[in-house]
Inverse folding.
């Protein structure tokens, strides 16, 4: 993998590759600075790294042609969906071509009878759910951002509903993938389950573009529940809220969402959304799905558990409009935090996930650690899965502050790993967590390297991400 | 991969390997004919193929030492649990050492708080569930046979409860695996979800011993439901029964088991179990899990749907003893069929799985095809998943009958594939379905070959299974 260097010492794409891509895509291949900047700048704290060109594909065959051309010129390919990845997945660390699939936005097929659908990789989850509304079905995986479904598959995304419906891991039935040499494969048939060979679907789910480009995704769908109720409830402290969640999960109550937000985070979203109806405290956002009777039963059980831990009153939302408002507040967390940033400040996102039995311990220790650093960060948790995030606000241009934040981040990752957890529950490794992966899985990372070398021997697929080769 | 040949033209293990294994295992390494026969004969119609020796391991480190020794002598290793695989997985097609893990029967850890456990690969599902009884937890995956959990992971087993709780794919959290060169890896941490690197857990789940030996399994557990009710119900014909299942699934009713048995199969199990309380007809066996109110609600909904399709009365079982009797009848299906075999007859098991919307069509076409062949076979289906089995009774020693049965089997596999389904929903490819895999997944099988070569370059791990290299 190598790009030519121009007289100024800058990487350049070979003329022959540029000609091939222009012939193939016309205006849909761009080397404009603004387009390159847009595609080479992440949402998070990572330093920008621009591709030398951006190719906008419209179907699987075009993706295959683009990858083949890049392969012939040993040029990196960086798949790009909505650019909402949080670990620098879309940065062109070794230059090359950013392959933008956002124009691949066709919903190819919906089967209400089989409760599944196939979409092009650029379709976003909100677009799919709007399209599905009249069918009585929905796709539950909800990472917050309106990400592309191809990108969600590539990072093994999950989010607020995983405690009930599972993550992308559980909800992708099959993929169409363009391999590093341009071949096109289908990873599985459309049957609900299969024992036919290695599980290539799940090998590509979470592969972060390092083994190939996901171009089509077949997904499980679910019936929109007969009844849905959401509730917000405030607790005397974070530990009480966490212990409520643990009890709910352990009682097997099929809660559909169970989100933790600490006092700091709650203040941020209430300020940002100009919301005055919520108590500023350590809070759970919950949602119940089921029949009318089932939802009532679940709600009563959870209220009883919460009361044991000293919870305040439940603030209920049953109407769609009210629920949307409630979840919009929660989902705006990222922007609410950014709104409090001082000039020069960015956020560094953390993503640890531990066995639920260790969650309270992990959060308490981290809260204490945070207090000692003097840094500011909310706690936001998919608590039912043992997964929580912090968004560490700091001026990453200031070496001292950068060090302070990174050291805190490092201690948190190691703390989670020491509790049999992982450094990343749902964001992925990207370029930000490569060293943690080695610490977490040891020799297994070498197996990953063997798989990578077997499927992408020239290392052109999203190089510099996930694995140090 | 090659074994030495003795003067009689028989494959033999090298003296050095035998010495190493005897030094390591003492009496637990055997070359006795009876032991070799036991390990080289499958449960199904496949021709026996004996290993030259059998190694009984007691822990991961011993497995690693055995595999290392075999690797040094280019000798095949065939992992062996309970020998209940149905596609010839345990046959020593190229000779070598059968690696028996049935003695690895330790339940290493149960966490009631996290609802998970770690077991050695030889622990069977019934042993685990007996052990768990006092904890209020259970492990749901139920393929019928009391298989080892390592073997169930290796074949990506599923069974009667998958419609509610998922298959091994969904319920294995992490594995300890001995690789083809003897290295030991952990595929994941114990967190409920993770985006840390390629999903090696699911790469090894369903790998059928061709990439390494699974030695420990970390599993999700579930709370024993507050209420459980089972029911048996007879239908006017198979199509009515199948359409009832499809409606139940499409209504999102969280039925825990939903098993189809045709009239032929029902007669066999009633004769075998001397059961006179059931109607001999096309039948559904169902089970409902939940709160008392939830179970009642589910049962009422399903009864209403079944009535629309002309079902007879539901015969209920709520007491554990009665439910056990009911499910024992269903699970004895395999033996009930064998009990009707004439001398010289064996069964060939089929395992197609199609999208649920095509299930009725697939079963009807197959029923018609069967009638034209004059062969006898019951239909047994995990209908909620679109997966059904036949057990084709035939004298496989008679070339005409063998041809007739195999041609029928072949048409069924292709019929399912033509309906976007798979040739194997849960049994695996083994040695029996290699050609079907190519037809089903095409170029993707080449990706599987690349992975296999990368992780087992000398092809010593269960050679001759799943892939033609």
């Amino acid at each position: 993998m190598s790009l030519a260097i121009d007289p100024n010492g800058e990487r350049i794409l070979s003329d022959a590759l540029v000609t091939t891509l222009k012939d193939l895509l016309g205006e849909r291949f761009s080397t404009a600075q603004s387009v390159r900047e847009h595609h080479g700048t992440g949402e998070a704290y990572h330093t920008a790294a621009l591709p030398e060109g951006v190719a906008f594909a419209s179907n699987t065959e075009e993706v295959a042609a683009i990858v083949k051309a890049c392969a012939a010129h040993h040029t990196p390919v960086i798949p790009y969906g909505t650019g909402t990845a949080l670990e620098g997945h879309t940065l062109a660390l070794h230059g090359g071509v950013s392959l933008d699939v956002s124009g691949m936005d066709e919903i190819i097929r919906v089967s209400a009878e089989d409760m599944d659908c196939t979409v092009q990789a650029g379709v976003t989850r909100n677009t799919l759910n709007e399209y599905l509304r009249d069918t009585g079905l929905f796709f539950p995986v909800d990472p917050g951002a309106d990400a592309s479904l191809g990108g969600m598959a590539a990072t093994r995304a999950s989010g607020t509903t995983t405690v009930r419906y599972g993550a992308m891991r559980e909800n992708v039935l099959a993929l169409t993938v363009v391999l590093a040499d341009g071949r096109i494969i289908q990873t599985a048939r459309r049957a609900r389950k299969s024992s036919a060979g290695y599980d290539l679907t799940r090998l590509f789910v979470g592969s972060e573009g390092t083994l190939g480009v996901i171009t089509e995704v077949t997904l499980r769908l679910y019936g929109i529940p007969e009844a849905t109720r959401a509730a917000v409830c405030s607790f005397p402290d974070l530990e009480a809220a966490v212990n409520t969640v643990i009890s709910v999960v352990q009682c097997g109550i099929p809660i559909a969402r169970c989100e933790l937000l600490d006092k700091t985070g709650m203040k941020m979203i209430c300020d940002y959304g100009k919301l005055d109806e919520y108590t500023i405290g350590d809070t759970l956002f919950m949602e119940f799905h089921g029949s009318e009777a089932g939802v009532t039963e679940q709600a009563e059980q959870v209220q009883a558990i919460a009361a044991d831990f000293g919870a305040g009153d439940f603030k209920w939302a049953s109407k769609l409009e009210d629920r949307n408002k409630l979840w919009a507040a929660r989902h705006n967390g990222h922007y609410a935090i950014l709104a409090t940033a001082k000039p020069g400040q960015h956020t560094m996102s953390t993503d640890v996930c531990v066995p639920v039995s260790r969650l309270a311990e992990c959060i308490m220790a981290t809260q204490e650690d945070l207090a000692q650093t003097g840094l500011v960060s909310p706690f936001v948790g998919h608590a039912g899965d043992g997964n929580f995030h912090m968004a560490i606000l700091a001026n990453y241009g200031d070496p001292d502050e950068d060090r302070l934040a990174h050291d805190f981040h490092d201690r948190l990752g190691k703390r989670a790993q020491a509790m049999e957890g992982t450094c990343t529950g749902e964001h992925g490794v990207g370029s930000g967590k490569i060293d943690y992966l080695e610490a977490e899985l040891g020799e297994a990372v070498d197996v990953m390297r063997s798989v990578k070398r077997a499927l992408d021997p020239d290392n052109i697929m999203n190089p510099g991400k996930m694995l140090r080769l």
Observations:
- Chain B is about 35% helix and 20% strand.
- The mean pLDDT of chain B is 94.
- Chain B has four domains: 4-102, 107-223, 227-335, 341-444.
- Chain B touches chain A through 92 residues (CB under 8 Å).
